[in-house]
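ugh finaly. both done.
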Amino acid sequence: MLRLKKYNLKSKTVTLFSLLFVSLFLSCDRVVELDLETGPLRIVIDAEIVWEKGTSGNEQTIKISRMAPYYSAVVPKVSGAHVRVENSEGTIFTFNESAPGLYTCTNFVPVINMEYKLFVEVDGQSLTATEKLIAVPPIDKIDQEFMPDITGPDLIVVTFYYKDPADQTNYYLTDYKSDILAFPEYTSTSDEFVNGNVIDEKFSDADLKPGKVLDITHRGISKNFYNYMNLILEVTNSNPFGAAPGNIRGNVINTTDTNNFALGYFRLCETNHIIYTVK
């Protein structure tokens, strides 16, 4: 009788833990949407003036959108804004709306180290930002090699090389696009410890195989933009398209109401653009 009680107790205990385990397993699959408080739907300005080496750089675009609630799958585009860029010589470049939230200029004139100022008027607010057009050294070589990987097949590593100027402090930003990546992958580089030397930038991915194509854009950027991007990459694990846990302020200033700040960054970059097919 005693042995029977012990057996029954053990059976009930096992049954109880089994039910708890199943309940825990099922609860892991449950999608829980928190009732998040919606903050101000701030203006977001994606203003990158890109001058690719070997091109005129006359066609440029600026995107203006608005923050959306966390669970929204739609990014609201902002129409009806007045957008222009003025250089330090007083030349004005007007950006006209070519599609909802997309503003285009076809006669832009890029000049290395010239200062440019962005003006945006939207929702009764005046927004401004100022930056210089930063140069980038040419890419001298690109190659690939195999790197041993103890967890699986050897990895293919694609590397490009460029000579950093010795007479100045430089900052760089590179993005990699490919059909193996859900989003572009970004890396930032400073010449703090390699000033004047040859710098190499490396990219690898477990899905990088022969025949895959890498679309590489390498930029010269300002120190302020370098610091801004490092903050974003740090909190989003190198994916600037991920959701940051807070609003990281850029260089856009609201001169109408400083408390109603916009998000985004106005930057001007000379770039190297490479399409590389993995061998």
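ok and the 2nd:
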Amino acid sequence: MKGNVALTEVAVPYAEALMSVAQSRNLTEEFGDDVRALLSLLSQSEQLQKFLDNPFIQAEDKKAVINRILGEGANTYLRNFLMLLVDRRRIMLLEDVCQQYLALLRQLKQTVLAEVVSAVPLSEAQQQAVKEKVIGMTNAREVELETRIDPDIIGGVIIKVGSQVIDASLRGQLRRLSLRLTSA
């Protein structure tokens, strides 16, 4: 489903509705945490994703699974929202709705998302340095890091903020050096 522009466009009004409920109840951050947890669960469980996407599984069965996942302490508004997605046969958009909600939350908080690829896990000090660099580039109030490990970059980092890419990886430096040598 990722990358499908039409489905993302359908998800936007649902994400906006969830944001509206969150703002009216002053729960934007709490919903943000819950949405991140849902996204993490969906990315870790392909079986759950397929279950929710399957149109032949009864709505009541999907609701029962969602209730078990959320547990007793889940926010009532979020639970009702997920049940609405099931009733409207839009639960297959859950991942897109969650991504759109987080984008709206970042916009509300003047936070930018920086995707960071490194060869090894970054220390706290390195993550802080990346955040400061991104704040300097974007004038954002806060930076949310989404890190990924890719040993193929050999060393250094690749930082992507929106359409800007900073390639400070050894692989990128070697590629640029190779291009300079071949053009000379």
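summary for the 2nd one i guess: Residues 23 and 29 are 9 Å apart (CA to CA).
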